[in-house]
Amino acid sequence: MVRWPVPESYSTKVPPPSSPGSFWEDRGDRHHCGVDIYAPCNSLVVAAESGKVEYIGPFTSPEWIPYWNPTSSVICSLRGGYFIRYAELGEVWVECGDQISFGEPIGRLGPVLNFSLIEDESPAYIRTLKDRGHQCMLHVEMYRTMPDNDPHYLGGNWFGAGKPQGLLDPSLLLDHCWE
Ligand SMILES: [Zn+2]
Q1: Is the pTM of this model over 0.90?
Q2: What tens digit of pLDDT does each residue of 58-117 get?
């Protein structure tokens, strides 16, 4: 059983290939490692599938990029050996080691972007998000193996050649949701 992870999202479909927020979107100097689900700020985030919380940590920070606000990410292991990352959360309500069931609340979306610090020099996809008023979104990634702290990865983007090890298209899971 798979539950759409943001009940209040503007759409209950993942962004189509090559569109803003789509999986492996080409952002010029970087690629998007997941999909973005746009929703009002403070929207509830629920577990898409049952699993165990393996990691909780910072995802974006103004110390890394000035136009970012602090947000967190949660990585859960799923049955079948897969891993899912829920990111750009303003509040996290679970703890490492927790067993969570599909549909169980795990937190709320936070305002990942500080619109006042987005400038003409900021990346085009960031300026597009500001133009569209998308300050909050759930960034979802899926992996075949537990993701490590690769220096080519930052805030859901991949700056290296190839792809992160074990990275999968989360549409494989999210295209089969119960709303
Ligand atoms: Zn994203």
Answers
A1: yes
A2: 999 999 999 999 999 999 999 889 999 999 999 999 999 999 999 999 999 999 999 999
Interval between CA 19 and ligand 1 midpoint (Å): 12
Q: Which CATH superfamily includes the segment(s) 31-174?
A: Glucose Permease (Domain IIA) (2.70.70.10)
In DSSP terms, 157 is beta-bridged to: 32, 154
Q: How far is the CA of 57 from the centre of ligand 1 (A)?
A: 16
Give the residue extent of every domain in the chain: 31-174
Which residue stretches of 101-147 are H helix?
Answer: 124-132
**All residues at 6 or more sequence positions from 93 whose CB lies less than 8 Å from its CB, including other chains:** 105, 106, 107
**Centroid of ligand 1 to alpha carbon of 97 (angstroms):** 25
Ligand 1 mean position, distance from CA 38 (Å): 10
